[in-house]
Amino acid sequence: MLSVVLLTGISGSGKSVALRMLEDAGYICVDNLPVRFLSEFIANARNDPSMRRVAVAIDVRSPGELVELPAVIASLRALNTNLRAVFLDADDNTLLQRYSESRRRHPLTDRLRLANKPASLHDCIALERELLASMREEGHVIDTSDLTPGQLRAWMRDLIQTDRPPLVLTFESFAYKRGVPRDADLVFDVRCLPNPHYDRALRPLTGRDKPVADWLETFDSVAEMIDDIAAFMRKWLPQYIQDTRSYLTVGIGCTGGQHRSVYVVEKLAERFADHQPLLVRHRRQLPAETE
Question: Over the stretch 68-87, which tens digit does the pLDDT of each residue have?
Fold first, then answer.
């Protein structure tokens, strides 16, 4: 069966990195395909035995057709197309920094200037978010704001290796000092729990290290927090599945994203190991994730 990854999102959010990863994974990749050609391209790929996995990047470079994309996706899914939509996003400050470092022009700059409208980078990003708003609801959102290219490649690799399920459940740790990730559907704040950061021996470790886990397990409040989050998830997860949702990302945040949130995510992943596919992500680059 043909497997299709539709990659879209905000310019500067990492689509080139993701597309190269898909190409390395054996996908036939097409960048900047006009929306009007998407159905025809997939129909031809479906009839070509050599094209079992394809990835298509569609973004704001063809803005006049973007309004049609959700309907095209719906029609393809109605034909039982194994289509996984991925939307890459990042916060404005990260995008501004990336454009400053790359010295590239935003693809909407000329369009705004031809319309005699302000064409600053802020204006371009705002317009792009407006044009892509409907696409953000079509698939799995990945906030790349504080991700390294290696982390993004790893997260994409995890995502495409999952079969097409009724719902992909993701537990993700993050640091509140970096902001709540834009890809989180549910967010739980565990900053009220005891903090291993103040123990000098534990400070350089992470929530995946046994000394930190042993320390946290001495506090009843930690176990109670995990029990409460797990109970909430057990109660409401069937409702999310019944709603035909394809993805549910649960963010667990602490101050630095290193100890408490990481530990809670790992424990929740153990509790929900019966749900497949299950993804575990840590926005802070932990030692085992270094590439």
Answer: 899 999 999 999 999 999 99
Give the Cβ contact number of residue 30 at 10 Å. Answer: 17
Burial of 152-163, coded b for 16+ CB within 10 Å and e otherwise, reads bbbbbeebbeee
pLDDT in tens, 185-238: 999 999 999 999 999 999 999 999 999 999 999 999 999 999 999 999 999 999
- Which backbone phi and psi does 9 adopt, to 5 degrees? 140, -170
b/e string for 198-219 if b means 16 or more Cβ within 10 A? eeeebeebbbbbeebbebbeee
How are beta strands 247-254 and 168-175 bridged, if at all?
parallel
What are the extents of the domains in the chain? 3-160, 168-289
pTM: 0.72
Provide the token pair at 74.
């719906």
Given pLDDT bands bounded at 50, 70 and 90, which one contains residue 291? Answer: very low
**CB burial readout 102-120, b (16+ within 10 A) else e:** eeeebbbeebbeeeeeebe
Alpha-carbon distance of 41 to 29, in angstroms, equals 12
| Number of helices (H), then strands (E), in the chain | 11, 9
The CATH number corresponding to 3-160 among 3.40.50.300, 3.20.20.370, 3.40.190.10, 3.40.50.1820 equals 3.40.50.300
CA-nearest of 200, 223, 227 to 211 is 200
